[in-house]
Structure formats: structure tokens, C-alpha cells
Amino acid sequence: MTFSIVAHDPAAQEWGVAVASKFLAVGSVVPWARAGTGAVATQSYANVAYGPDGLRAMESGESAEATIRRLTSTDDKRALRQVGMIDAIGRAASFTGAECFDWAGGRTGDGYACQGNILTGPHVVDQMVEAFEAASGDLTTRLLAALSAGDAAGGDRRGRQSAALLVVRQGGGYLAGSDVAVDLRVDDHRDPVAELRRLVEIHRVLLPRPEDLEFVPIHAGLARVMRDALSERGYDCGRGSGYDEDLRQALFAWIGAENLEARWSDAAEIERKVLEILSSR
After folding, report:
1. Euclidean distance between CA atoms 278 and 230, whole angstroms
2. What pTM does this model have?
């Protein structure tokens, strides 16, 4: 019913899941992840308990392979289940029950597991693997590349409906207040993977990774440009000059209104993407 990938980026210490299916709101069922622990994709008559139970086991140090083996061994409907897991140190495992609807199967590699059922053929998983291994960039980029490749290869043979992307890292969430770095879902759409890609681009603007931020010092000339731009947008910048408190408060208010607060700095500087948006007409 679904195709998915679970993966780990050891350098960034991120774990994630990407999934698509001819199933309403697949993101509410399949993907599970916990920073420092691992990720799970549970699908095909999904045993949702595999998510929290799998994460709990891997958090205690159990490998992905051992966790899947133990969970499926006590599941009397294991022949219908499919699950992929990646553990804390990037060991991957995938299980496909003997009664999953054709085509069904999976592949594992260094730091990832791809699996799917009711697919147009094994080439769907093969293309996902090839795309993930070839892609560069952060884990979100590589997961999305794999999902897009699987979709382009035919994906779920029943058609398209939903897709989701979940990535976690310690302190990676909104204003570092959680570990959920990316949690995007397309619940019902004619082209859900394409729509998911669109949402990821918006997410990159509003919730950037700290290492992607680039700040520019606010000199007197730039302050004049900013004051004019904010005034045109109806913000009271006062009558002073330079980056004074009135301009700072106006910029802070505009950034908050535009949901760009993850790009704010308390110093006398402005993030380059913020400046680009502010300067646009």
C-alpha cells in the first residue's frame, strides 16, 4: 500500500522517514522517529505499535534488526506486515511479510532501508536506493530525492494520495524547543510527492537549519534601505538614523508577522534571506 525510506545522517546526527501511499494521511500512521534513537516506518496492515515499541527498544541499545525480529516474532499477523527501521548508530533492517500484496519487498544499505508494497515492481525500491545513494545535501534533501524517485518509477500501483516527511535531531525543532526538525504531511492530494517538495521549500525559508543562516552587518546605508522598506509596509521606524531602537523594533515586528523569527538576530545584523524578502517589492 506504501513505499518508504528510513535513514540516518551520522554527521548531522539526524534520523528520518519519507513515505508516500494511496492511503489517506499516511503520515499519521507510518513514520516514527526519535533523536538519538532511530526511525521506524510501519506499513501494510500497519502494526502501529511497531513505532513506539521499536523506538523504545532501540533507545535501550537493541539493533534495528534485533528489534524487528523480536517484534514480528510475537505478531500473529506478521505475514501481512512490512516495516523498516534504522537504529541509533545507523544499522538498518527491513521486513516484508510473506502475505504482503505484490509487488512487495525492500533493500537496506549503509544508513538506510527502503521498502514498499503494492508497488508497480521492484524497480521502485531500486530507484529509491539509487537516488538516495547519489544525492548530496542534508538528510531532508536525500530522503525527498529517494521518495521522488520512487514516485517517478511508478510507486504505489493503485495511484497517489498522500505523502509525509519526518526528520529529527537534538534541538532541531522550532526555535530549538523540540527535536522535530521537519514534520510535513500531505494528507490528500493528486500529486502528493510534488506537493511535499513544495512544502519543504517553504519550510527551508521559515525554519532554516542554523548552519544555513548567513548574517549581514547593518551599516548606516543598509539601515536607510531597511527603514524605507519597513516604512513602505506600514511599520513605524521613527525619525532616527542608523540601526536604532525604533528600527530594531520595527524589524522585529515585521519578521514576526512574516513568520521569519528563526532568522532573527539580537545583534546589529540581518539574515541574508530576510534582507532579500524585505527588499523585494
Report:
1. 8
2. 0.95
